[in-house]
Specification:
Layout (H helix, E strand, L loop, with lengths): L2 H28 L12 E4 H10 L1 H8 L3 E13 L5 E5 L6 E5 L1 H6 L1 H4 L7 E11 L3 E8 L1
């Protein structure tokens, strides 16, 4: 094989690899997010029960609830609007309770259900449990 042919093969392999890498990156950044609003909740529970489950045994609770669609009810202790216009509702305890994050697109879509929600009111959010940091994280939430 000549040197010219070897360089040509190496360049083609590099080009194909580069196209595959860019295609993979494009897919990962543009893949559709999970639509929890169309799913039925696997678990429906009070925020106090969810907090209790995680405090009693975080490992078992994580296995049970992680990445599951859950409906969580409780008293709203704080409401925050993030820089990206998402909203975070803290249930039962502002620091160590349940944080329900409503994405910015869903804030607009469900504005009629979210506008009357105030601190001290009871509310139910359906979302995907992503585990516990300082508080229990429920993401992709929609109001029930």
């Amino acid at each position: 094989m000549t040197k010219k042919k070897t360089i040509r093969i190496v360049l083609w392999i590099f080009l194909i690899g580069l196209i595959a890498a860019f295609g993979s990156i494009y897919y990962v950044f543009n893949m559709p997010r999970r639509n929890v609003s169309g799913e039925s909740a696997v678990y429906s529970l009070q925020a106090k029960q969810l907090i209790s489950d995680f405090r009693n045994d975080e490992t078992i609770a994580t296995k049970k609830y992680l990445d599951q669609a859950i409906a969580v009810s409780g008293e709203i202790k704080s409401i925050r609007t993030l820089d990206n216009h998402s909203m975070v509702f803290s249930l039962e305890d502002a620091m160590e309770g349940v944080s329900c994050t409503v994405d910015s697109a869903d804030v607009v879509k469900f504005s009629s259900k979210l506008s009357p929600v105030k601190i001290g009111a009871k509310a139910t959010f359906k979302g995907r449990c992503s585990g516990m940091l300082m508080d229990i994280q429920v993401i992709n939430c929609v109001p029930e």
